[in-house]
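agent: user wants the structure for Riboflavin kinase from Potamilus streckersoni. delegating to structure tool.
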Amino acid sequence: MYNKLPHFAEGKVVKGFGRGSKELGIPTANFPQDVVDKLPEEIGEGVYFGWARVNSKPVYKMVMSIGWNPYYKNKKKSMETHIINEFEEDFYGSELKVVMLGYIRPMRDFKSLDELIKAIQADIKEAEEKLELPEYKEFRDNNFFRETSPQDS
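agent: tool returned. relaying tokens verbatim.
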């Protein structure tokens, strides 16, 4: 199922459901539906880890949720990226580039918001640890992140 990794994706950051920052304290950058629709079938629902870059900012560790988020009963499949860094501003409309490198866990429902937040925090911790491994760390410097987009110049 995960033989399509690494998977490289890019697109403009669009407004999501507005829950990441407000309800969870874990902001996410969302890809537009056309990027979600281009995901290979072999990349199933779940939580993934990898690297992300917004415009010309540095490359940071990330976790990404792909699916319908059962806790919220979404009607549309989404790709929600949590970049593991504190940002001062929103970056809607910015170019987001990600490389998904590994799988953490399947999508599942949660009994409470607290349970969901704890699971996401565990996902973040696991991503931080795995991305220190040499086979994943080397992707931080991948040419994919060095190619400039028109708005970067």
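agent: one observation worth passing along. The longest helix spans residues 113-130.
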